[in-house]
Amino acid sequence: MTASRVLVVNSGSSSVKYRLLEMTDGSRLASGIVERIGERQSRLLHFPAGAESSDPASGGERRERVEEFADHGAALRAVAEELAADGAGLDDPRLAAIGHRVVHGGRTFTGPVLVDDSVLREIERLIPLAPLHNPANLTGIVTARALNPELPQVAVFDTTFHTTMPEYAARYAIDTATADEHRVRRYGFHGTSHAYVSRRTAELLGRDPSEVNVIVLHLGNGASASAVRAGRCVDTSMGLTPLEGLVMGTRSGDVDPAVVFHLVRVAGMSPDEVDELLNKRSGLVGLCGDNDMREIRRRVDEGDEAAALAFDIYIHRLKKYIGAYYAVLGTVDAVAFTAGVGENSAPVRSAALEGLEGLGLCVDDGRNEAPATGPSAKEPRIVSPDGARVAVAVVPTDEELEIAQQTYALVSETDPAADPAAGR
Ligand SMILES: Nc1ncnc2c1ncn2[C@@H]1O[C@H](COP(=O)(O)OP(=O)(O)O)[C@@H](O)[C@H]1O
Ligand SMILES: CC(=O)OP(=O)(O)O
Ligand SMILES: [Mg+2]
């Protein structure tokens, strides 16, 4: 039997998202999420084939478990049990591999890799650069390996797509010896999303990725922008860690680094407290108490001043990055909005491009505001007017599909039993 299925595991700091895919047609066989890992009441939500994971109302067949999952290992073992209950456990011969999202791959990993002991050691060595993410990613891989030692495990890194950045974009202007000794440079994240969305945008324009320049705006809870020239990343807004750049749900994005010294020296905060402030109590939530863009827009519409200022700061930062990457690229074929906010918030898209007509950038209000519902909501679409100099696009991201495709391509190369044509 040909093994043509891939399980994708995306371990976040306190959650695990997963999806089982059939690579011959890219279909979803199961998916789910384990949330609040490490808390008393963790929750596992499992959606077998047919139950639509993105729509809670259609959860007829979904299964829920509320119990304590002490760590990512316990969570993944519970996921394996749910999959086994569907007749598709980790020992299923139809399973070709597990693809794991790993947030930080440093400069070591310029593509997906088959996990062995040396890969695990390297992911561990990179923990100081991604203390919230890499430990969870590592536990996920180690647990999956223990559950089925024969099954290939593939690591797909958030940083890979950005390894093509030129040195002048990747380096900070600080003492070279210090930077080199401590690996201080800009790595960039959300790479699988930027890769997927820039490619899909080229397809939407009916052109080859090598022919187009795209600014990708990944606006989820974490948010980042990237400048993609001819299919290769030339700049991105996240840096050493996922803190730099845009205003995010709970992260500040760019601040003067002296803010940190000030808070340590004058406010008496410890480095860990400042870290927590900038990563978890800043961004939209720090400015107005909410990090969900739907709630913020509702408050803006009711005349709430704190929400209006938070929205304006978010948009101002976004606009600055659009301008910067326009200048970096010189010629721009498309601006692509993606992730939770980018795909769903028409006010964010129109405000971010307001006043940029001189750069050939604007939205068509009717197209921008047309609600995307049903299966077509996941289809990329153009929201700029016909004949616009730069296309503005809404391109739903699919990090899980991208990870699955990279995983399957890699194991197909190494395992002649798998069909290399499938899933592409
Ligand atoms: N209909 C919507 N309108 C505006 N914003 C939305 C909508 N749906 C989701 N969002 C925003 O998307 C965010 C989540 O984005 P997502 O890409 O799923 O984030 P992540 O993967 O980083 O958790 C929410 O916090 C919310 O701000
Ligand atoms: C790297 C990163 O910021 O990821 P997320 O948006 O999933 O938090
Ligand atoms: Mg995300």
UniProtKB/TrEMBL annotation:
UniProtKB keywords: ATP-binding, Cytoplasm, Kinase, Magnesium, Metal-binding, Nucleotide-binding, Transferase
Catalytic center at which residues?
A: 158
Q: Where does Mg(2+) bind?
A: 10, 399
What span is annotated as the signal peptide, if there is one? none
Q: What's a single GO MF annotation on this record?
A: acetate kinase activity
Q: What quaternary structure, including any partners, is listed in this protein's UniProt entry?
A: Homodimer.
The protein's name in its UniProt record: Acetate kinase
Taxonomic path: Bacteria, Bacillati, Actinomycetota, Actinomycetes, Kitasatosporales
